[in-house]
Each structure stands twice: as structure tokens, then as C-alpha cells.
Amino acid sequence: MPSAQTTQPSTGTVPAAPPPHSHHRVRTAIIFLLVVGVVGFIIWRIITANDKANQQAAAQQAALANRAIPVQVATVQQKAMPIYVTALGTVTPYYSVTVKPRVTGELVRVNFKEGQDVHQGEELMTIDPRPYQATLDQAKGQLVKDEAQLKNAQAEYNRYKALYDQGVVSKETLDAQAANFGNYEGAIKADQAAIDADALNVQYCHITSPITGKIGLRLVDPGNVVTANTTNLIIINQFQPIAVLFTLPEDELPRVFTKMAGAKALQAEAYDRSDTILIARGQLLTADNQIDTTTGTGKLKSVFQNEKEQLFPNQFVNIHLILENRPDAITAPAAAVQHGTNGDFVWVVKADKTVAIQPVKVDVTEGTTVIFASGLKPGDQIVTDGADKLREGTKVDPRPMTHNPPAQPSENGNNGMMGQ
To answer: Cβ neighbours of residue 173 under 8 Å, at least 6 residues apart?
Structure first.
């Protein structure tokens, strides 16, 4: 019988299985390394991008540093420059007449065209003179009658005077004849006064121009009955010469009065509303004798010959009242002056087309022009536009001003400023 085989246990060692938490630590470490790698990669990309941006910015700055900045420039000039005060003025006729009839009657004729120039004494309108002519003829007839009666009274007086001398009539009778003679003398004087008045009324029927000037629009048409001293017929304004009324602050008046005390009359120039176009030149005539307490201003009057009739009544103008003239003023456009913490300065363009700060002292500003007391010399080129981009030593591309005013103001509609 076969014997049973007994299986013996193996004497070899079997490895133990790793604990479960060791696998978790491995995975955590792997994930951490991946995260660190990703973060590092991102940081590297950011650093690389910043380096490129910095390099591009540095390249752009270098390019800008080498590129010239376009600016507008003007040349400093030495020339005669007037010093003046400005004011807003109103053109006023030197003479203005509202023509009214001196007699009442029907307007039968108009002898002018609206807007035409007329001369003093020229007949403008005619009122029907027949009623006044009839009254004049009646007064003349009464004069003839009274003259005849006076002649008769004088003869009667002479006769009674002879009888009185002979003692035939009394003194009372002679005195009565003398009084009768005197009555007729008075009547003749009254008749002559009536004739003069009636003749004047006939003359008033022919309305003449009291001044030389320009007629406005007709206010009454022929055929209407006009009333003496009531109806406005026409308005006549004198244009040559013409006046401008303007006001100045009372603080400016002493300086003006001091200049007015000189032998030479002060010059006045009239500019348009924009204060750029010279219309006419004239002279200061006088100043008012009081200051307006409500505004603190004094009124002045200037006169212009107005040969071309460019000044028109009620037109608003800017008045430049010239107080003095400076023959050798250093001038430039006011746009060139910059204001800094250390005072006024300008950007001067040097020969190598770079700019430098030049401190200046402004003496006075006249409109769009300044007069410098120091800091510049004739011929210097200074920046008038584009200064906000400039630094010391910046390279520029200078270009002349596009709106540089002409040297002298224009009277023919061209832009200009007084003193340039």
C-alpha cells in the first residue's frame, strides 16, 4: 500500500506587502513636483516676456530720443512797438439830426433817395406851401392898407399942427391926432412882423438838410399830413468825420490824462470785433468831465475821418489808445512765453536744432505780442507751439508759425495786430 506523502511547509521567506499610506506619499510628491515645474515654467515665461518688453521699450525710447520733435517757432524781432490801452467802443455819428417839420401840412414831394449823401442846405422834402403863401399875401395886403392910413394920419397931424400953431385948435385935439398917427405906425410894425412870420412859414415848407451827412430810411411818405414839431420825417447822420465813444477803468484814467496833457493828440485805432483787423485811425478828442460811479469807468471820445466810411453808427469796435511808442522793442508772440516756478522762460532753438530753457523778463503784453525787458536778442528762434513735449537738449524740427501776424496791421481786411 503506498504510503501517504506529507507536504512539508516551505522554509523560504515571503516579502511583506507595503503599507497603504506609502503610495499616497509618492503621489503627493509627484504632484508637488509637477506643480513646481508648471509654476516655474510660468514664471520663466513671464520673466522672458518682461525682458522682451523692456528691450522693446528701451529700443522705442532710443528711437524717440533720436527722432526730432516737430515744433512751431518764431523769430525774435526788434522794432518800433506802440504801448496802448484797449477798450470796447461804440461808433457814434459826429452829428445826428432827426428832421421834423416846422409847420403843419400835407407832404407833397420827397427829393431824395434813401441812403444817399446830402449836403447842408439841400432841399429834401416839400410841404404844401399854398395856405402859408395865402396868409403871407394877406399880411402884405394889410401892410399896404396900414401904410396908406399912416400916410393919411401923418397928413392930418401936420394940418392940425399948423392950426395949433395959429391958435385955431386946442392942444387936446393935436394930441389926439398925434396918437392916431402913432397907432398906425405900430400897426405897420405889427404887419411887418406878421409878414416875416408868414414868410418864414413858407420857407419852412421847403425842408432842407441841416447838416452834411447820409440819409436813413424815409419815415413818412408823400400824401401824409405832418404835424409841426411832432412828426419824424428822416434821420441824418454825419459819417465824415465820425466819433467813437469808449470807456476806461478809472485806474487807467490818470495815465491817459497825463499823456493828454502833452502837445500832441493821442492816436486811437479802431479794430473789428475779433481785435485783429484795423478799420481806421483817428485821434482822441476829449474825456468826459465825470466818472460813472455805477461802473467805475470814465467815458472818452475819439474822432475818425472815416474817408472810406468803414465805421458805421452803433457799430461795436475795439479801440487801441496809443500812449507811447517804443522804437527798439524786443518782441515775440505771447504764445512762446512759458510760466515756471522760477519765473517766465522760453524754449530757444540752438544752431544744432536742440532746445534750451532761456529765462526771460516780460515788460508788457500787447494783445498777442510781448515786449521783453531781458533774456532775448533779435534773431533768436523760440518755440511757440509744441513746448509740452520738450526737455533740455531735445532735438526738434523747427517750422515757422502758421498764423504769425504781419508786421503792420492792415486796413484792407487782412489779419493784423496793432504794433506788429
So the answer is: 160, 164
Nearest to 338 by CA among 380, 389, 378, 377: 389
Superfamily of domain 129-204: Helix hairpin bin (1.10.287.470)
Task: Please tell me the pTM assigned to this model.
Answer: 0.64
So what CATH class is 101-127+207-237? mainly beta
Of the two residues 185 and 285, the one the predictor is more confident about is: 285
The CATH topology of domain 74-92+239-400 is Elongation Factor Tu (Ef-tu); domain 3 (2.40.30)
Mean pLDDT of 222-236: 94
| Per-residue confidence (pLDDT) for residue 268, from 0 to 100 | 95
Position 416 pLDDT exceeds 50: no
Per-residue pLDDT, 39: 80
Contact residues for 350 (Cβ-Cβ < 8 A; gap 6+): 356
Q: What confidence tens digit (pLDDT) does each residue in 317-340 have? A: 999 999 888 888 999 999 889 998
